[in-house]
Amino acid sequence: MHRLASSRGLDMDLLQFLAFLFVLLLSGTGATGTLRTSLDPSLEIYKKMFEVKRREQLLALKNLAQLNDIHQQYKILDVMLKGLFKVLEDSRTVLTAADVLPDGPFPQDEKLKDAFSHVVENTAFFGDVVLRFPRIVHYYFDHNSNWNLLIRWGISFCNQTGVFDQGPHSPILSLMAQELGISEKDSDFQNPFKIDRTEAGVQWCDPGSPQSPPPGFEILLPQPPE
Predict the structure, then answer these.
(1) Residue 160 and residue 96: Cα distance in Å, rounded?
(2) Taking the CB of residue 171, how many other CB atoms lie within 10 A of it?
(3) Which residues fall within 8 angstroms of residue 131, CB to CB, at 6 or more apart?
(4) 202-205 and 196-199: which strand pairing?
(5) Across the strands, what pairs with 15?
(6) What is the CA radius of gyration of the chain?
(7) Whole-structure pTM over 0.70, yes or no?
(8) Rounded to an integer, what distance in angstroms lies between the CA atom of residue 123 and that of residue 161?
(9) Domain segments of the chain: what residues?
């Protein structure tokens, strides 16, 4: 009975976490408010809101890493990645149909603003996931040609928007492209999250790390779905 209750608790936690992630994927940060800057005021406002969204995304991934349950992480990332690429594909369709250029004026139409923000935010979020859980992501990504094409388009789009030109998030697109093999790796490329960690005196191996677990510690990775 206790085991059943624990299982239900895990399932409930999983559902709640997935619901939170989907809110992150689907909620845009369209630029609104007083226009104050001189170049593209709407874009400058959006950049500030983008910073807020990035903090929310990174917090979600921190919580995911702290689950310390590789099977739950696989379940969450499986569902999340499918949702992320569906949003990315739908947003690309909206933007290309309206001939929105990534280096053009920030869109004013609400539907186009949402599509723009979905592309920028979900591409960046996928970069975070790739770098923190590379082993899991490669299982799903490497054999999915549609995802490969979508993220190549997303990276190209984001690189032209100006959103990633400066600031703490500027390296994410390049690091993601190198980790995925989309672009050639720099001679000094290193994924900063591919490390073993020690927390509270308990040694555990980053589930996303390609490195072997330390001696005496073993992780049994579930097989990816067929």
Answers:
(1) 15
(2) 13
(3) 172, 175, 176, 179, 191, 192, 193
(4) antiparallel
(5) none
(6) 19
(7) yes
(8) 12
(9) 63-185
Q: Which of 150-159, 178-187, 196-205, 213-222 is most confident? A: 150-159
What pLDDT band is residue 101 in, cutting at 50, 70 and 90?
very high
For residue 34, what are the CA distances in angstroms to 41, 95, 163, 177, 217?
9, 25, 19, 35, 55
Query: In sequence order, what DSSP letters do the residues of 155-182 get, joined into one string?
Result: HHHHHHHSTTSSSTTTTHHHHHHHHHTS
* C-alpha to C-alpha distance for 100 and 43, rounded to whole angstroms: 14
Distance, in Å, from the CA atom of 121 to the CA atom of 87, rounded to the nearest integer, reads 11
Q: Taking a C-beta distance cutoff of 8 angstroms, is the pair 88, 25 a contact?
A: no
Q: What's the pLDDT at 168? A: 84
Q: Is 140 left (phi over 0), alpha (psi -120 to 50) or beta?
A: alpha
